[in-house]
Amino acid sequence: MTALLEIKGLHAEIASGRKIIQGLDLTVNKGEIHAIMGPNGAGKSTLSYVLAGKPGYEVTAGEVTLNGEDLLAMSADERAAKGVFLAFQYPLEIPGVATLTFLRAAFNAQRKARGEAELSSPDLIKRVREIAKTLNIDADMLKRPLNVGFSGGEKKRNETLQMALLQPSLCVLDETDSGLDIDALKVVANGVNALRAAERGMIVITHYQRLLDYIVPDIVHVFAAGRIVRTGGADLARELEATGYAQYQSEAA
Amino acid sequence: MAAVQETIDRVKDIDVDQYRYGFETVIESEKAPKGLSEDTIRFISAKKNEPAWMLEWRLEAYRRWLTMTEPTWARVGYPKIDYQDLYYYSAPKPKKKVASLDEIDPEILKTYEKLGIPLREVEILEGVERPAAAAETDADGEAVAPRTKIAVDAVFDSVSVATTFKEELKKAGVIFMPISEALREHPDLVQKYLGTVVPTTDNYFATLNSAVFSDGSFVYIPPGVRCPMELSTYFRINERNTGQFERTLIIADKGAYVSYLEGCTAPQRDENQLHAAVVELVALDDAEIKYSTVQNWYPGNSEGVGGIYNFVTKRGDCRGANSKISWTQVETGSAITWKYPSCILRGDNSSGEFYSIAISNGFQQVDSGTKMIHLGKNTSSRIISKGIAAGKSQNTYRGLVSAHRKASGARNFTACDSLLIGDKCGAHTVPYIEAKNSSAVFEHEATTSKISEDVLFYCIQRGLSQEEAVGLVVNGFVKDVLQQLPMEFAVEAQKLISISLEGSVG
Ligand SMILES: Nc1ncnc2c1ncn2[C@@H]1O[C@H](COP(=O)(O)OP(=O)(O)OP(=O)(O)O)[C@@H](O)[C@H]1O
Ligand SMILES: [Mg+2]
Prior knowledge:
- Chain A is of the alpha/beta class and about 250 residues long.
- Helix content of chain A is about 40%, strand content about 25%.
- In chain A, the strands form two sheets. Chain A has a six-stranded mixed beta sheet, sandwiched between helices. In chain A, strands 2-1-4-5 form a four-stranded antiparallel beta sheet.
- Chain B contains 13 helices and 23 strands.
- The chains are: A alpha/beta (about 250), B alpha/beta (about 500).
């Protein structure tokens, strides 16, 4: 098994100096799906931002490699081109920019960064439409400004669409299940499962077993107070649903 | 919007602070003696073989100008202009009399080529420029119409050097020629309308223009005619220390329609250059004029040295009932912009529109907006202004909406949105509203926001660079206005927007 992502002794804080990630170790091998569960405010989204390189989150210690390369040394757009994809907990709206325009800009920016040929508009549009169909995304929605006026569920489906188009090597899904109704949950889960591949790794952040019924993880971690406090198999998630996080919060404190 | 990718490529290719049109053309020119006097004016008038009344008109304006003082109410600051230290007339010296494009100085043709302005009709007719038109698609994957024909009048310093598609326009009865030529060929038409929208006494810069204007475009669309193509003028300042004072006069007779485009560039220079144009539009009964500008004068360098002072008076008169005038502007250049394209809604049921994108970066100062003067009954106006301030620039929207006592049923909708990039720039909104008729309904909305770091990060997480992300977000912000531009111009404008925001972040 080759490691895709290796996080060692990671500490990170926000601009105010508050320490959020406090000694995190995590290895995601190629082909694996890891679920991260944990109480509100534990630092799960912060971890995703640190991996993606969001400004305002300072790494004070530790190292992170992607395919053996120093991820922390790369700018955020370089990380994206290297295959880091973050499905946002709260996707952003971009007024006046059609979804398709955004997808094309992103797709070709990554290709260019990797020194690959850009895809012509008709080819790209064809590809997007095919993916959209599998996610029950209406073709009309592709013309609408990105995420503007989209329902919570539509936004999450759109994140999945972007992920499927960009074919990243590391997918970080931050509460992709929140805001989804049962049917949409299945559709999105199918979309994610379709991306399962020997070369790809995923980190699925969620609060609910429900999602993990569809996207079955290889490994489940409990994340509390800025680090992983317990690791287990798929059954750990079910156990958590029964017991809650109380024991881990006191452990971590 | 196939252009977004192009925009992004373009941005990548260009270094920060590189004005793309900043080259100078070396060419022999004929200038009036430096400085301003009655003699200068006589010189210009004589050069142009003008009718006697025109000289008188100019001299009257000049005498008036001597009594006026430069306005200071705009939110712009600049050192005092020495009006005696300028040239008021500069013409590329013709090798011989020009009868066709082939005889124009090749250096000038090259200049326009570099600017991407098609002066050779044959090329456009044969579609040489865009062989792969069929492959162009917009955001919806639908094919974009192939390049349309555009008639171009090119003004180089003070003189119009070429007008294309003359014959075809003539067949339609459309007059499109340099105003200096119109003064000789259609003096009565010019005399009937010149100065009727912007009188010689209007304001300091317009009065100066009336005295010394050297060329510009003249358009007349006869009754009931829909102009068969877009008309376009490209202004280029080349000479050093030369003020450019164009005069544009467009008349749409009853039931006529015309869409007119104006583009402007200048070489990169350390000293400031003065540009004081006047544009007059007249729309008679049921006529419509659509006037679009992409202004890209040299803005000065990153230290704020050099650049064009752009003091322009643009006004449209909806003189007839049911007439319509629509201004669309994309303002990205100039060190200083002082510009308020306005509509006088004189005819009953007439309507005026103002769509504006004003971008300032570096040390640029923009004070721009519009005036909608409601005089007739049931007149309506619409103002959509998008201001984007970056760097250390100041960007002011200044607007007036007024309803005359007799203007019953006047309606206006105004929306002014400002976007700030960085924290060293400023955006200001100065709306004046005067309703002397109680039935007027005026609505005003204004917003100011900072470009969202979270939105930028979202774009960057998907692989866009910081500058590409800013370009994308800003293009989205101005979309409502971009849509008002003719397709050709919209693509060009989109590129320009991204380029002008170079170096605005980080
Ligand atoms: N930019 C910021 N400014 C201030 N506080 C922040 C910032 N980013 C994160 N925090 C704080 O850091 C802590 C961790 O937040 P984070 O969003 O990572 O939690 P989470 O585990 O994703 O929680 P949830 O399950 O509710 O999504 C929270 O207390 C949050 O308020
Ligand atoms: Mg979270």
